[in-house]
Specification:
375 residues, Immunoglobulin-like, six-stranded antiparallel sheet, five-stranded antiparallel sheet, globular
Amino acid sequence: MTLRIFFFLLCLSFAKNSFSQFYIRGHVTDSENQAPLKGASVYINNTTKGTTTDDNGDFQLGPFQPGQYEVVASYVGYEALLYSAELKTADFRIRFKLNKKELILREVLVLSSATRKQYLDLFKKYVLGVTVAADHCKVENLEDIQFTLGDTKDEIVAFSEKELVIENPDLGYTLYFELVDFYYNKLTSGSYFFGYTRYVDWAKDEQAKKKWLKKRRQAYIGSTVHFFRSLVKKELTKEGFTVYHLDKSQRLKKDTLVAKTPLQKANAGVHVPMKAVEDSMIRLYPDSSFLIYELCLMDGWRIIYKNSTTLKTEIQRKSFMMQPPTGTMTGLRLREAPVLITGRGMLLTPIRVYYDGVWAYERLANMLPEDYEPE
């Protein structure tokens, strides 16, 4: 009887912990005079979880499950600050001290109306994308985007002192995007951008949200979010993904070829793909209290999703792209190690990877918040 009582109490303890309300609370102040900043935005990066500070500069976010979260605090005229929080207890507190933005003397390009329009079109192309959803998106404060030269005359850098407000009617979100970096090379057409994003859902109740459910589901299927969640759950095959490692050490060499056909010569020196399984793709990252994985990218992954995604179909309508007749081919390559991912499938270090294939066209207009759950 005593053993049964102990077991019952143990179950109650587990149940209590399972339903504990974990919150992130804190305070946002000016770093110089410690004055509270009323109305500062505080949010979990790339999610719909956000709030603003009260008259005393205080905020509360939650409830959450225990884990690691990127908490961003931003305020007009101040530098945005990101804090990587490991949520272990039911009451986690952060004190943000924001620095006023320094007046950086940038050589803002004085552009004609036609040239500015051309630059803004480039900015929208590489930040929003080239899909139908991107065409429907509207940046409410385009006038806040300014351009300057990079290290060479062929490089263009865009910046904004205010967060960009982007309306996305196709997916039913307003995005508030804190632009950290945007780069474009006119000579190579290479582009790169980075920033912090918070989403506001246009529909709070399920009835009003129904018209967006289908398009959100289409954006999710075969996306990077879908892939990373499947990877950490070890459900790649179940979810329709096949992955191949690319390994330089296993490259085909010309002197190993028996026949010298044009096709064999073309393939000489290319990476030989080897089918991968989840256990060879991720490993536990030791420097964290929570479930954090490091991607074992080697020389990259070639990823095949079983069906043709909406993004693939839209991109192929506009430009030629090498793709299988059925299915969607994408890829990942290492920019800088380590590449870390949470146990929830959230990429913690997105700037450390390159995307190939269809995913190279996955921009803000077709991205979903990290806390999106398919119906």
